[in-house]
Design brief:
Chain lengths: ~160, ~160
DNA sequence: TTGCTAAGTGTTATGCTATAACATATCAAC
DNA sequence: GTTGATATGTTATAGCATAACACTTAGCAA
């Protein structure tokens, strides 16, 4: 398992790959990757950090792409539906998907200090929850798996570098 | 593992046990189990369903126990801090703890149709997330593990009884 | 071309969720 | 009975999200 987010990595590649992948996915599935949607994904991709809908809106507004809340929420709905972004329920915030293409149950490690987010795959967890669900007759639509705490950089003994 | 919530069980016992347990815990830890706090827990315990803060407030208001939002949020803060209740992040709602006393990482199966909630223990999941956390140097404070979907009663082919 | 349809966008208004801030009350310890 | 800590009452406001409706654009068919 890999957890993209806290480790060093080639972020330019990370951004490009996701944008290219999203573009291809949209063509294949006849979805419209409009300027607002594309720019919203770019903004979320800029850092591995969770962004509130109104934070996103503020940036879009600065760039003349829309001023009212629905603009941001529509873009976020599109991105999350398509699997290009995820909502972090524990923060009421959004983040670009770090494993685009995988049909996945994402799990997140969320730093409550600097809001950095690492995305991991949650297969094991999913199986575990799946067992309980089967036993009780429950049908799972979506899983929310989040660990809130402190990232390596924000540990008490080693303050943010 | 058990998942309290969807199965038939002696709910009167379930309520009484939790209230008695909460009372004992408060005495042992010198916490004040005031009328508002006690009544709030009773209200959450009434059903294995998630209740919004304002739903709780409406009931408290009807009974003359407070009218402004902070009343409900303070009670909920107390109950969740003490481990008597949990917040369901996926619904922005609250539910009484079904495993009082256990130092636990709860996992929830949440019916998006009728809002029934089953609480299970998430030891396996916790271990799994713990592994990833250790590998990346992340310190976990709290885990949110929720599966959203349909409960046995709300399955498409068998509408709510 | 024209017109139809579906999807996307612009905008206003509103509702739900949560907390800040400050005044008042209660209670236990000294 | 004063002090200090905790709980409660109250007003106001901040933050998150969506309903509803008008307008526009793109694609397709007659």
């Amino acid at each position: 398992m890999t957890a993209i987010g806290f480790d060093r990595h080639d972020h330019t590649k990370c951004v490009t790959n996701t944008l290219v992948g999203a573009e291809r996915y949209c063509i294949e599935n006849k979805l419209k990757f409009t300027p607002i949607r594309r720019r919203s994904l770019e903004i979320l991709l800029a850092e591995h950090r969770a962004l509130g809908a109104y934070d996103l809106l503020a940036i879009l507004a600065r760039e003349g792409l829309g001023t009212a809340p629905p603009v941001a929420y529509r873009a976020l709905d599109f991105l999350t539906s398509a699997g290009f972004a995820h909502k972090i329920e524990g923060l009421n915030a959004y983040i670009a998907c770090a494993h685009l293409g995988a049909d996945h149950a994402p799990a997140f490690l969320i730093c409550t200090s600097c809001k950095a987010v690492a995305e991991a795959e949650a297969d094991t967890t999913r199986h575990h929850l799946g067992e309980v669900a089967r036993a009780t007759g429950f049908t799972i639509r979506r899983t929310v798996i989040e660990a809130l705490g402190l990232c390596p950089k924000c540990q008490p003994e080693a303050p943010c570098a």
